[in-house]
Queue: 3 jobs
Job 1
Amino acid sequence: MPGDLSWPSTDIWDRLNDTLDGRLIKTVPIASVCHHPNYDEVKCKHLRENWRRSDLHMDHPTSIMHNIYLKKACDPFTSPDTPCDIGSYVQYTVNVSKPDHVKKAVNFAKEHNLRFVIKNTGHDYMGKSTGIGALSVWMHHLQDMEYIEKYDSPHYSGPSFKLGAGITGAQISRKAKEYGLVVVSGSCSTVGIVGGYIQGGGHSTLSSVYGLAADQALSFEVIAPTGEFLIASPTENSDLYWALSGGGGGTYGIVWSVTVKAFPDTKVTTASISFGIDSAPNEEAFYEGIKAYYASSSRFGTAKLSGFAVHSGERFDLMPLFAYNQSSDDVEEIISPLIDTLGSLGITYTKAVATYPNFVDAFFSTPSLQPEVQEVSAFLLGSRILPASLFPSEISQDQIENEGLDKLMLILKDIANKKGVILDILVKADSTAYANPSEWNAVHPAWRNGLHSLAVAMFFENEEGLEVISRDQDLITYDFVDQLRQLTPGSGAYLNEAAPNEPDFQQTFYGTNYNKLLRIKDKYDPYQMLYGSTSVGGDRWFENESDGRRLCQVTKNSKSKKRSFISSIEL
């Protein structure tokens, strides 16, 4: 840690920089212009006004988008007289351009007993992209995209793309369009496809047709924490390939590239539906309208539709559904029972159905999905994968008789009454992506039976204090999500969009795969260089608050306590 006698001297850091072709960057927090002695009123004002722009943090070597994990260190919204402490920012980062940079960085961290972190875009809800006292590798400028017309292997034959670690979903979607193809990529277009997204499973608007992002991985190039450059595929280092395909990012190695499947582009139809509580006859009818959406979801999943729904105690927005290779008439027929039900409830709604010639045009027809305008939302999360068995097969069935759906609606109403917002992802991950998906990759088995990845969010202002933020996160984790856990025993959650203080993260994020993943981690990361509080093996470590938040190994004498949100951001 900085301040220790064993912390590398400036001369040692300089010598490291020489071996890295001058690519070592000493952290200067992005908001240093808002604090003395570097205070600049004009620059600070610009930073505050643009603080929620994704590209602001994506293009900075050490800033992260979900900046609660910086724990208000050098915050642009505090007084200029407040010291600009580095806090949970990494101390140094390497702007890597070749594998040797990663090897030298990880070897240096190992030699000097430094914490080691991987950052790509910084789009990370779980705090893995930063760490107190750490040396980081910044992967964002690895921008290679190679089209492979015919990838040929025993497990797949067809078009593919080899992607450098810095490629985002928006970039590969637009590149694939040039070849008349699509690639499974994230709903947030600023997500780096090669990092935590594909390694964590990764849902997509194409998942109901082609499966999860992890189902697309054909091979990885990866630098193990031992310094070895490895290929991981179904036939080479197959255990590492299995773990990287859904077992969590930043855990088993530093991924340099991934080769993924590509599929023919076709027309895509979208459908949006919105209504508010003020456009319903009463509150009961409003919630019956929301219930009708969930009662329709099995029908949507069977028809291979995916989409997003956002709702609170005031309004519902389906924004939108995506129907791959289906016409407007097809989609109108699919959604007609929902529309009929809304009408019978006396709800005034808006509806828009449109067909686009290709996937990119359809996806970016929703303004909030465009990377140029996509913002970092200041919210707290918890989530649960809801199994398909919870929902009726058709909305025409008597909803009152569906006990699971009734229980879900009581939970959703309780969440809304406590100012929570639901961010629902409708995704039926197509298990035909492999003959036996659970054997080929490490995604949580709950995905294969799931229909919704339902997230619960609470929003906060930039100026909000950590005490209020912590209180709200604990409300999400130990109240909202706990109700969903009781409703869905044996299920899990998407490990990239979940509560950072999830009490049983081993089961919730990894399920029956956890012990196998732990053995693979120990094989490829024997020195335990790669850490995340909810990563495989993360329960072996804790932040020692009495020793400068140093990362220490858990022993039999370590105190066990409830995972509060404040402790989970002690990074």
Note: Residues 466-487 form the longest helix (22 residues).
Job 2
Amino acid sequence: MRLTTRQRLLPRLLLGLVAVFVLIQFVPYGHAHSNPPVAATPPWSDPDTKALFVRACADCHSNATVWPWYSNVAPVSWLLQRHVTEGRERFNINAQGFGRQSDEAAKAVRGGSMPDRSYLPLHPAARLTAAERNQLADGLEMTFGGQDGSGDSP
């Protein structure tokens, strides 16, 4: 029986894809998952705000990121590292000056753009109802509202 061109190329293509997947595991970016030290801790307005934040936001917006097993597999590791780095740059409750971005964070939560949609499929507990979004946004405003951004609260 004679093989078609497609039948001959398919095994080579699959082997090539496997080889690329193995090779990209050696790219160092996204594999060193160390959380920076905690420089500040917010004075949460109430325990519910803290619980909602930990449930839906802390992995990207604190220095207490929980890195799942798949965060060590490229190219997923690259995406996760970028998401966490960007999240910490925008709003990080454990960094000095965290209060400065609280209004933007509350607005993003209330508007439904946070938590990020790409985070939700693997973290269903982070999915917030409309009431929880409003409660978290109100809590963020009460916790951080009026701060000078020094982040020196106990």
Note: Confidence is low (pLDDT under 50) at residues 148-154.
Job 3
Amino acid sequence: MTLDIVFAPHLPLWALVSLGVMAAAYLGIALAARAPGLLWRTLTLAVLLLALANPALLREERQNLPDIAVVVLDQSQSTGIGERTAQALKAQTALKQALGAIPQSELQIRYVTATDATSRTDAGGTALFRPLAEALADVPPDRVAGAVLITDGQVHDAPQDAKAQIPYPIHTLLTGKPGERDRRLTIAQAPRYGIVGETLTFSVRVDDSGAQDAAGAPVDLDVRINGEFTARHSVPAGANANLQLVLPHGGENVIEIQAAPGPNELTLLNNRAAVMTTGVRDQLKVLLISGAPHAGERTWRNLLKADPGVNLVHFTILRPREKLDETPTYQLSLIEFPIRELFEERLNDFNLIIFDRYQHSSLIPVQYYANIARYVEDGGALLVAAGSELAQPISLYRTPIASVLPAEPSGQVLEQGFRPQVTADGMRHPVTAGLPGANSAETEPSWGRWFRLVRAAVMKGNTLMSGPQDAPLLVLDRIEKGRVALMLSDQAWLWTRGFEGGGPQAELLRRLAHWLMREPDLEEERLTAEVRGDRLMVVRRTMGDRPPEVEITAPAGGTQTLTLNESQQGVFSGSVQATEMGLYRLKNGDLTTAAAAGPLNPKEFSDVRATPEILGPAAKASGGSISWLADGLPEVRRPRTGRAMQGDGWIGLRANERFAVKSASQTPLFHPAIAVIAMVGLLFMAWRAEGR
């Protein structure tokens, strides 16, 4: 219980003050005039003013309110370097013991653990002040004793105006040790887009922080594009350097650059950096050579002309050069076929060559067919859309091109109605998988019939579509570095015309052409991954029965394996939790890929050296402190408000001495009746003094 004297004036304060001023003025005049009975008059006025002020004795029963302090433990990825985690946990345990000796009625502690999953900035840095503010959200500011941060000092949400935002002491206990060294790689500038096959310039920088005379020393950089090693460069430390790189394919490309380890490094995690660059194909060059006119002659031309990404060169060979034509020259509108230019000088400029119902003639010398075969083996693409001419003695199979064709024609042509079927391989291959109207294990295809098929024996590759008696219709193959497709019918135009409901001719031929031109989304053996929320989603497409387990390397270097389950024919998928920021690397057999969780180059690893510089302003503005755990754990004290909150070897958690009133009562000290009696008596004494 506490006792106190309080006042509850019967008049407003301004009136009471006015009366006091008037009384003082009156007494001053009386004093100057040496009026008799001045003492009694003074006492009378004093009693009057005291009665009007109404003093009372206040009795309160109070309950002391405990102060609240917060201990924030930094468990971000950078605190896992070296012995920092062990230091932090040891300090937290010792701090719990020290704070546990303080009665909970005086001080209550809230412990907060800040991890990458719960306390991450948008740039991928460590946020400690956000969870600190959340822990104190329900606590009045005058009850906060302070906060203790156990961290390496790499905090990326420190307030700019700490004095205004932090009305309590902030103490930082630093893990690590002063004077640490580390090498870090940053990508200073990188293009977001680039033309596939053309040289792009990337600006990088290697810094050896904490090292003496490291500027200018050569550092080796390894470059990987989409997980595959491409080149090694040597650059000087401490300065920007340019790397010339080439994107291998369209779509997203993950460019990874890794610096060689430096001496006495803290971690190798920030020796590498990555960037996503979208590859944009320049116009793909396609050479289309059409032979004898037929109903579907314009099918390929219309399809390729409609694609803005394709630069089509189309020749229709109506007659061989040795055939006489008596048409006057001025009436000729056709140009001479540039054989040498196309098949020798500019052959490698084309991304795809298409022979549409073409039969061998003396127009193209045999050695040029050999050039085409070598072009395919060296990485080119060839499509043969064949009709009945393939079964004749003058077919392309009687030329050196036969060495790259996946099937040998038997010389027979089936001319009967049939609905093309997607084979078991075709249901797994992205060129034909999921075609609208395709057959399944239980149903027949719903598209229209074709009426011609060249019989052939498949020697290699994958048969994706078949005709009557399981005769091959569409065969795809990889020849060394190149690709070949053989369509053993010229009846696809029936689908275009809508015969018997038509079929997905445009979609099929588009997929076929883009597979030949290496569209990544149409690869039959492909590994992809992306991070959605906190899950790393992995998809593996394969022509095989079951892929091996996927090896996953986390940004911090930890590895794990993932078993994939078949989600649809030829597609296997699975997921794991993605708890770390940065680049996840995946390997499945010969396939590799990468996926980014959060920023590709998180701020968390921009500098991993333990430092007091970032939190120094907050400590100074709040009256707190920064100390190294390597020097020992400071003592905890409870200084009162207004006193120093830190000193040599100790930190202070403010004692606010807040309380709640459980009950209160007031007893008047000057009853009105007593005041009246006192004033009458004093006035009588004043009258008596004046009467003398």
Note: Residues 13-32 form the longest helix (20 residues).
